Amino acid sequence: MRKCPTAEFEQGKFVTLPGGSYLKGADPLYPEESPSMRLRVDGFAIQAHEVTNDQFAAFVKATGYVTEAEKALASDDPAAGSALFVRDKAGLNGRWVLRKGATWRTPEGPETTIQGKGRHPVVHVTLADARAYADWAGGRLPTEEEWEYAASLGLPDPGNRFSGAVEDSGKPRANHWQGVFPVKDLGVDGFSGTAPTGCFPADRNGLHDLIGNVWEWTDSPADDAHMIIKGGSWLCAANFCARYRPAARQPQENDFSSNHIGFRIIRDAAAPAAGTAQ
Prior knowledge:
Layout: E1 14-17, E2 20-24, E3 37-41, E4 44-47, H1 53-63, H2 68-71, E5 82-86, E6 95-99, H3 127-136, H4 144-154, E7 215-223, E8 226-230, E9 250-253, E10 261-262, E11 266-268
Parallel strand pairs: 7-10
Antiparallel strand pairs: 1-4, 2-3, 4-11, 5-6, 7-8, 8-9
């Protein structure tokens, strides 16, 4: 298990990025990442880490909010539930299941808890859940362009699309899958699931985990029923997905939740900070 720094971590910290331009879809790997185009983005402030369980718990305590995965607990629909990536008793041969009872409070299913995981990114949240938190916290979800601009601007090596995930030496720079997916995660990065936010080194702008750990919701639609998620997750491997790059994009059903999708929020540059988000 990787030891995460604690003294340097500041929950709820925002970093202000100046406006500028970037190449959207730079060095595309998959068809949906094309065409490449240069875009300009206005400045904004972005949370330096993914929204944590502690932050989401504060939101729920203050508002009484009930997530869509929790509402599914009362449903008679056999398809109701949240997606959960599970492995056999030996920790091998992973597969996806839809499990009623997998929620942000019980991320691995009934009988599990987030005790001791307050700093981990909140998961099992849909687009609506993420938007509700963002509104309460005085922010909003980033657009795909804002998210990609931030990730591109912070790459350790702007000329290497994979540099946010892997050092030149091959050492993991972010939380993702090492080994052959879905057979075995070697856990070279110290984790075989989500990592506490801010555990891996910050990028050039002081932002953590834009690459890897959990996919992040954006507020950009792919179509009427899907939004774009960005950044890849702890399940992205070299032989499968390889979407731990700024340009990578994936459509996701608006009402979908899983144990590898979370989010972070941004604020417009002129917006005042909301103390309730801490």
